[in-house]
Specification:
homodimer; alpha/beta; Pantoate--beta-alanine Ligase, Chain: A,domain 2; two-stranded parallel ribbon; globular
């Protein structure tokens, strides 16, 4: 989606030993924004992005126009069920349909051997993993760890909207995730670890959700869950931030 | 779907000058049958099919198991809107979702340069054309003309269910299509040609639909329509038959 930061450039660096040619797509995809979301004000700076990519060793930049991705009469949508029901999917009902469809199209247009996806958008990563497996798309997904500022704040194009006071409060999101990790690591039950995580959130950080869940199903933990992830979405002022952390594996 | 007849073998023959290697998939796809449809009694004879394919010059036969195409936890569906709203889509609401999804999977698994589809399933052909274009699938579709018995009956795996009396009545479907073609060719308006087509159907041939429509949108003709097709679905006894014919082009 462009507005590149260090977190994005890390994708290129992780790809270097994996492939011969690195291609970056930049496409601010309207079909994953709902009416009233921040499509219009989503930051765009293609010239700066292109310069950063060239410096970092990107071989080609793919910037399709809206009309070539979504031409008149476009009619085909990819719906991934289950893993899209909750969390980001609950508050943004058509979001993942737009994501899955555009990612499938970009894969088919570029035909990469390897595709990176940021772990920061944990549910998006899971949705695309599910789609690639289900539709037998011939691409390997390389997840890229979340890039954090030294104080722990996850890099996001939306961080620029935070005042310095809001930014200070937002740091409690990362602290909460760390508290949850340490608690699970110490053998504390996930439900209890989740309470500790919530308590860590600062005043003015209003969670949409703040849970420890089953990563495979992107659903509440059940008796079969072994792969857990703590996920948080919260509003800080008018800015909505998301972050997450994989939890230590559960042995059953 | 197997149960091969001359109409299927024609696909291989048309492909011969186009490609180096010809691969046939046989998969009786459960997700395109609704509850109560003829999935269980759909004819299957893989040994006979394999022999016919080998004789005709097929290089490989791909017969995936149900569990490898639709494994536990499968969650991703491709929905093509518009062209699926009417005709076969109206009476079988999940049919084309199953068709589009399995065809996308088979394309991704086999990665053909060229894929054949029978013109007999005219709406299915249009749905897959739409999906391939919309999802940027890198495959060329080669439509295969409907194979007919000398008396005009379109070949179908379901013809075996017809008694000889039913078969005689069913010939009026082809006659109706021909009447429509000749009428349009003579400059008669499509609405009038449609009436003549309906009148041609024999007693005991009960149409689900019998219309001249816009092939591009698979919808009723409007002022922009140039590519017309006559489509018929009808029950003859307990057997449901479909057939169609492209009409002469309309110049506007």
């Amino acid at each position: 989606m462009g507005a590149l930061h260090e977190g994005h450039l890390e994708h290129l660096r992780l790809l270097e030993p994996e492939v011969d040619v690195r291609i970056c797509s930049i496409f601010v995809n309207p079909t994953q924004f709902a009416v009233g979301e921040d499509l219009q004000k989503y930051p765009r700076d293609l010239q700066r992005d292109a310069a950063l990519l060239a410096e970092t060793g990107c071989d080609a930049l793919f910037t399709p126009g809206e009309g070539s991705i979504w031409p008149d009469g476009y009619a085909t949508w990819i719906q991934v069920s289950g893993v899209t029901d909750r969390y980001e999917g609950a508050s943004r009902p058509t979001h993942f349909r737009g994501v899955a469809t555009v990612v499938c199209k970009l894969i088919n247009l570029v035909e990469p051997d390897v595709m990176t996806l940021g772990e920061k958008d944990a549910q998006q990563l899971r949705v695309v993993e599910r789609m690639v497996e289900d539709l037998n798309l011939r691409v390997r997904i390389l997840p890229v760890p979340t890039h954090r500022d030294p104080d722990g704040l996850a890099m996001s194009s939306r961080n620029r909207y935070l005042s310095s006071d809001e930014r200070e409060r937002a740091l409690s999101i990362y602290r909460g995730l760390t508290v949850a990790y340490d608690a699970i690591n110490a053998g504390i039950e996930p439900t209890e670890a989740e309470v500790l995580m919530r308590e860590e959130l600062a005043d003015g950080v209003v969670p949409d959700y703040c849970e420890i869940i089953d990563r495979e199903r992107f659903a509440p933990i059940d008796a079969t869950s072994t792969d857990l992830i703590a996920v948080i979405a919260a509003r800080v002022g008018t800015t909505r931030l998301i972050d997450n952390m994989r939890m230590p594996p559960v042995h059953r």
